[in-house]
Amino acid sequence: MTTTVHAHTAIEPNILYFGTPVVLISTANEDGTPNLAPMSSAFWLGWRAVLGLGRRAKTAQNLLRTRECVLNLPSDALAAAVDRLALTTGSDPVPEGKQRRGYRFVRDKFGRAGLTPLASETVAPPRAAECPVAMEAVLERHHAVDDGGVLAFEVRVQRVWVHEGIRMTGTDDRIDPDAWRPLIMSFQHLYGLGPQVHRSTLATIPERLYRPDDDLERAHSV
């Protein structure tokens, strides 16, 4: 089979959001009420996640103060709920940078999104009942990115909750990738995930060989 090779062109995009899953992060405000914020600068390694958040964001401030959060992963069916949180912030007053972009303060983020808070087991912030995946996590460390306006948070997952509909039949520790349909953010737009395009050689490695035993032992002790 012949593959067509296209020429590259050097450009300077304003943003580099080529496509990552949307995460709804729930954290606890100073008065104990929950904040819920969408973001997509996240990736996972074992039972750890790395999150990129603006230092002045309410989520970042809550995470630094309480060191707890829940990472709720919406499916593509929840795109409208996620979009209802767009241009909202839990910060009052609204930071100047967000004012220029049209953000407004909303106290009840769960109500705004139309999502249902559920009590977590190991952390104070609630889970979002409608999200097929919810991961309770604690902050391990953070560091500044570039000039410090953005912080990279490393969180350790303590508990993973999933809807039965995305669990692989006959297993107690695997997600069915054909059933799981994450919501994807690509250049500020929301997309779903299409069907598998090619069999993966990497998938021949048993998932259990990737299990992070140290983190799982700590999770079991909570």
Describe the fold and architecture.
The protein is α+β, with helices and mostly antiparallel strands. The radius of gyration is 18 Å and the shape is globular.
Which strand order spans the largest sheet, edge to edge or round the barrel? 3-2-6-11-12-5-4
Main sheet overview: 7 strands, antiparallel
The average pLDDT is 93
| Helical percentage | 10-25%
Tell me the β content: 25-35%
Secondary structure tally: strands: 14
Along the chain, the helix and strand elements come as EEEEEHEHEHEHEEEEEEH
Structural class: alpha+beta
Topology:
Layout: E1 20-21, E2 23-28, E3 34-39, E4 42-45, E5 48-54, H1 58-66, E6 68-73, H2 79-83, E7 88-89, H3 96-100, E8 104-105, H4 109-113, E9 117-118, E10 127-128, E11 133-145, E12 150-162, E13 184-186, E14 189-191, H5 213-220
Parallel strand pairs: 7-8
Antiparallel strand pairs: 1-13, 2-3, 2-6, 4-5, 5-12, 6-11, 9-10, 11-12, 13-14
